[in-house]
């Protein structure tokens, strides 16, 4: 009798559903997965080591490039760590802006997660719908920081600058005539806050649209219900966080459990799943987007009423205004020192974690009192999730592996760092 | 017409029937190929609009030359034959895929009498020929000697065979009430009946009395042509492109052409078998090819619409749908129709 062997295939790194550079070595028996072995490291850029050779502020843009679909949240954890080490206070307006952009980022991330999850499962229209909304939020990023992705907007001590009073406008071109441009610019006439308010009013309708496409769709349910089930115990044991944990019914959210910035003053709910399958995690993400939308609304209302500084006035941490720098010797010295030597962070170590869209994103920083971190350790949520790949995929079909990758919301910048 | 062709016919002498048939074949295949090319364009445009984007709009006015550009690109690309393949079969695969999808058009009637081969067993011919298509896929996947194509092939073999059964039973219902296997005859039968006499021809077509079969046929048609949401054979996000992974240039293009030619074929058959072919929906408008074209296009549009809307089925769910839902439903309906025909309530006398 011939020897029966399992069929081993290389799923990625060049694969449409590999979410970047996931290399998954699958052992198949027919189409049933016997073993799923994720190989990582293809996007490793040594961020932690690089940070040791840069001043504290210079590493902020590296944080953008970790999980490159939730840029500002990464920055947030890093800035929080530095602030805790120095003991600097962020002005309230700065905190509200941070929270608002954290939630914008959460929507950005979840839109991509749900869009690509649906695309992996074959509903390709979803991804284009979600990208339509991402476009608006990217514009908000652009308006506030000048960059659509790698914003580098959060700084130790606050945010780089206040919200702009006007939105960038589209201009007529060969492909866009005056009428199209007028329509595109219609909701961009006011300030960034006006633009975002308009978005928050439209967004629930968009969520309903997505839900009509997916939530009650029989095929979607067949593909997600009961797939990749994680019990609450398993989820905790594997170190799951974020939607992956809440999908299993554990109501753990750092925004509620260890409130940072102004989250304790805002009204929002934590959605949890029941079964811990892909479908529940999809529903959790859907509801989180609605909740984020609600938080953004509250932030907009507060920010409209309360002008003020957005970054700390401590010029050992944050640069002085350009005007002051030009007219005042002391400010000039601060400016020069900050942009050449950088700030010195007191000796000590700190762990700062935030509720990143994907889960708990933590920064563990050790300072020896120099202008550079002595050691920086990043705790990325995706890494823990991906580690459960084998356990989640075992016994499922090849097509379910794709659904599981989608539901994990893997981004390789985040996993490999 | 005959008189007009007389001098040319005498020029060819005994070879004339062959020449004339060849000319007719070209007259069918050439427009078909154009239709296939532009189906890719319309698919991209229509799905584009469904997905809030524009679709191709750079090559030529409104992007109308896009299919030509695609065709030229594929023609000029090198046909790579990986060294581990079985060379002969590797080339034979795509040929076997496209040949049946073109051959089936021989018996398709475009208008009353407008058919290349008006054979009595037309429906049987279609079933036989389209069954061969799966060999192209199987041979391609096997000859590629590669893992993803092999998975695609296994899926194709199971899926196409399963849905052929459901499709076959749906067609049995049609031929029972038409009492003919001749496609032209099937259309003519649909032009008779109580509603047709009242001038409401579209209510006399087979889709109404055979509605469940119509739905089954339509869905099986999508499954037969491996279109979304049944596109597990090439399942982009799962097995990349299934049996087409190792193919490039024209060999790949042949699979592609076959898929789109099959879409047209399944659509035109739906129009002929269930939607009255070239018959006009209402009494006061003349019959003609344009009706068939409109109906076929509507069915093709359904294909595209489904693709833009639904997630992909999982392979085992497709099997379940085929064997546990469609097969019993069609078997049962065959029985219902049989009893209906023999009963005094029959509307087909």
From TrEMBL, chain A:
<dbReference type="InterPro" id="IPR022885">
    <property type="entry name" value="NDH1_su_D/H"/>
</dbReference>
<dbReference type="InterPro" id="IPR029014">
    <property type="entry name" value="NiFe-Hase_large"/>
</dbReference>
<keyword id="KW-1278">Translocase</keyword>
<comment type="function">
    <text>NDH-1 shuttles electrons from NADH, via FMN and iron-sulfur (Fe-S) centers, to quinones in the respiratory chain. The immediate electron acceptor for the enzyme in this species is believed to be ubiquinone. Couples the redox reaction to proton translocation (for every two electrons transferred, four hydrogen ions are translocated across the cytoplasmic membrane), and thus conserves the redox energy in a proton gradient.</text>
</comment>
<protein>
    <recommendedName>
        <fullName>NADH-quinone oxidoreductase subunit D</fullName>
        <ecNumber>7.1.1.-</ecNumber>
    </recommendedName>
</protein>
<keyword id="KW-0560">Oxidoreductase</keyword>
<comment type="similarity">
    <text>Belongs to the complex I 49 kDa subunit family.</text>
</comment>
<keyword id="KW-0874">Quinone</keyword>
<dbReference type="GO" id="GO:0050136">
    <property type="term" value="F:NADH dehydrogenase (quinone) (non-electrogenic) activity"/>
</dbReference>
<keyword id="KW-0520">NAD</keyword>
<keyword id="KW-1003">Cell membrane</keyword>
<keyword id="KW-0813">Transport</keyword>
<keyword id="KW-0830">Ubiquinone</keyword>
<dbReference type="GO" id="GO:0051287">
    <property type="term" value="F:NAD binding"/>
</dbReference>
<feature type="domain" description="NADH-quinone oxidoreductase subunit D">
    <location>
        <begin position="120"/>
        <end position="417"/>
    </location>
</feature>
<dbReference type="GO" id="GO:0005886">
    <property type="term" value="C:plasma membrane"/>
</dbReference>
<dbReference type="Pfam" id="PF00346">
    <property type="entry name" value="Complex1_49kDa"/>
</dbReference>
<dbReference type="GO" id="GO:0048038">
    <property type="term" value="F:quinone binding"/>
</dbReference>
<dbReference type="InterPro" id="IPR001135">
    <property type="entry name" value="NADH_Q_OxRdtase_suD"/>
</dbReference>
<dbReference type="InterPro" id="IPR014029">
    <property type="entry name" value="NADH_UbQ_OxRdtase_49kDa_CS"/>
</dbReference>
<keyword id="KW-0472">Membrane</keyword>
<comment type="subunit">
    <text>NDH-1 is composed of 14 different subunits. Subunits NuoB, C, D, E, F, and G constitute the peripheral sector of the complex.</text>
</comment>
Automatic annotation (TrEMBL), chain B:
<protein>
    <recommendedName>
        <fullName>NADH-quinone oxidoreductase subunit H</fullName>
        <ecNumber>7.1.1.-</ecNumber>
    </recommendedName>
</protein>
<dbReference type="GO" id="GO:0048038">
    <property type="term" value="F:quinone binding"/>
</dbReference>
<dbReference type="GO" id="GO:0003954">
    <property type="term" value="F:NADH dehydrogenase activity"/>
</dbReference>
<dbReference type="InterPro" id="IPR001694">
    <property type="entry name" value="NADH_UbQ_OxRdtase_su1/FPO"/>
</dbReference>
<keyword id="KW-0830">Ubiquinone</keyword>
<comment type="similarity">
    <text>Belongs to the complex I subunit 1 family.</text>
</comment>
<keyword id="KW-1003">Cell membrane</keyword>
<keyword id="KW-0560">Oxidoreductase</keyword>
<dbReference type="GO" id="GO:0016655">
    <property type="term" value="F:oxidoreductase activity, acting on NAD(P)H, quinone or similar compound as acceptor"/>
</dbReference>
<feature type="transmembrane region" description="Helical">
    <location>
        <begin position="89"/>
        <end position="111"/>
    </location>
</feature>
<dbReference type="GO" id="GO:0005886">
    <property type="term" value="C:plasma membrane"/>
</dbReference>
<keyword id="KW-1278">Translocase</keyword>
<feature type="transmembrane region" description="Helical">
    <location>
        <begin position="252"/>
        <end position="276"/>
    </location>
</feature>
<dbReference type="Pfam" id="PF00146">
    <property type="entry name" value="NADHdh"/>
</dbReference>
<keyword id="KW-0874">Quinone</keyword>
<dbReference type="GO" id="GO:0009060">
    <property type="term" value="P:aerobic respiration"/>
</dbReference>
<feature type="transmembrane region" description="Helical">
    <location>
        <begin position="123"/>
        <end position="144"/>
    </location>
</feature>
<keyword id="KW-0472">Membrane</keyword>
<feature type="transmembrane region" description="Helical">
    <location>
        <begin position="204"/>
        <end position="223"/>
    </location>
</feature>
<comment type="subunit">
    <text>NDH-1 is composed of 14 different subunits. Subunits NuoA, H, J, K, L, M, N constitute the membrane sector of the complex.</text>
</comment>
<comment type="function">
    <text>NDH-1 shuttles electrons from NADH, via FMN and iron-sulfur (Fe-S) centers, to quinones in the respiratory chain. The immediate electron acceptor for the enzyme in this species is believed to be ubiquinone. Couples the redox reaction to proton translocation (for every two electrons transferred, four hydrogen ions are translocated across the cytoplasmic membrane), and thus conserves the redox energy in a proton gradient. This subunit may bind ubiquinone.</text>
</comment>
<keyword id="KW-1133">Transmembrane helix</keyword>
